[in-house]
Amino acid sequence: MWRRLFLDRTVQWQLAALVVAPTVVVALVAARVARRVAAALMRRLLHDTLTASSPLVRAPLRLVSFATFILVFAVLLFPAFEAASLHPRFGLHLRTLSTWTFGSGLRVLLVTAVAFGIVRIVAVVVKRFEHDVNFGTGLDGLEMAKRARTLGSVVSNFTTVIVFLVAVLMILNELGVNITPALTATGIVGVALGFGSQTLVRDMIGGFFLILENQIRVGDVAALNGVGGMVEAINLRTTVLRDEEGVVHVIPNGAIATLANKSLNYSFYVVNLPLAYGEDPDAVVAILREIADGMQHEDAYQPFILEPLEVIGVDAFEETTIRLKVRLKTAPLKQWFVGREFRRRVYKALADRGIQMWSPQRTIALPPRG
């Protein structure tokens, strides 16, 4: 019965078997390659969510392997028979296969190679970007590394998805599949998702530039939209703050209208010192400089005080005091640690010298009774 497959009824099964055997081998190799490629893609998508031994992973891999084997075997079998001069009645002819191979087949290969090249180039650029951005030591270095990995992952995944979708559509077109319905469906889905996820896209874009421009870092003290606290996490969609009462504030990145970072690169501790009328501001300034210089030479405060005390001057005249403004330039997040000790020493030094920080009495003039 198997001889009915061929125009020549005298074909021996041994010769047919010699053709089928290498075709089966080629199909098995193609199925193995397809399974490995599918497994690599699933690992990239699922990460550690599912293991390779999970039935939810094994079943799709078996399906991909079996479908690839059947497809390659069915496509190559009859051209192989024809190449062996067996002239099958059915199936794909060798001339048709060769015409497609040197026409659309080469274009499919070119599309695949270009897509793979683009993905690899983007991966190299991302690695280079991560290497250039990852500088510093300690917590700062770890935070910069995390930022670089976040940005690199977003760019790499986005590029891979776009290139993969475009390549698949171009390959389907070369295979003779009508991709117009797919493009139409993609456009409709894209419009629907665009309307439904405008806020999500805005948050992600805002988070991308927030991380890229290094506006705030984990551990900074900042105020976002008037809400102040320490930055605990910077994600692509949200930023997490914890205020001094321990309350956690989760703020969408796309909703950040104002951002005030109190600990970027350096900080200032500003003191508006009240002085009673009649006190000499120049004498008080000399005392303040002496206190600041002493702290700057102590091991506990020297690493955190970046410059000598800056005297801004008499800043205001009030009803019972004059305001003398000075400030200390400190390392980030150390302004309160240094400033509180500075205030304590200033109070004691002024009290020891009998300098009043406000007028001790107030005179009130009442109109005479009529």
Short structural description:
With 370 residues, the chain is an alpha+beta fold. It folds into 4 domains: 1-92, no CATH class; 93-196, Helix Hairpins (Orthogonal Bundle); 218-261, Roll (SH3 type barrels); 267-352, Alpha-Beta Plaits.
Structure characteristics:
370 residues, alpha+beta, SH3 type barrels, 4 domains, rod-shaped
Secondary structure elements and pairings:
Elements (H helix, E strand, L loop, with lengths): L12 H34 L8 H29 L10 H40 L4 H37 L5 H17 L1 H15 L8 E4 L2 E8 L3 E5 L5 E5 L6 E3 L5 E10 L4 H16 L13 E8 L3 E10 L4 H18 L18
Antiparallel strand pairs: 1-2, 1-5, 2-3, 3-4, 6-8, 7-8
Helix pairs in contact: 1-2, 3-4, 7-8
Structure description:
The chain has 370 residues and is α+β, with helices and mostly antiparallel strands. The protein contains eight helices and eight strands. It has helices at 13-46, 55-83, 94-133, 138-174, 180-196, 198-212, 281-296, 335-352, and strands at 221-224, 227-234, 238-242, 248-252, 259-261, 267-276, 310-317, 321-330. Strands 4-3-2-1-5 form a five-stranded antiparallel beta sheet. Strands 6-8-7 form a three-stranded antiparallel beta sheet. The protein is rod-shaped and about 130 Å long. The model has no long low-confidence stretch (mean pLDDT 78).
CATH topology of the largest domain: Helix Hairpins
Q: What's the alpha carbon Rg, rounded to whole Å?
A: 37 Å
Q: Largest sheet, described in full?
A: 5 strands, antiparallel
In N-to-C order, the SSE pattern is HHHHHHEEEEEEHEEH
Mean pLDDT: 78
Strand share of the residues? 5-15%
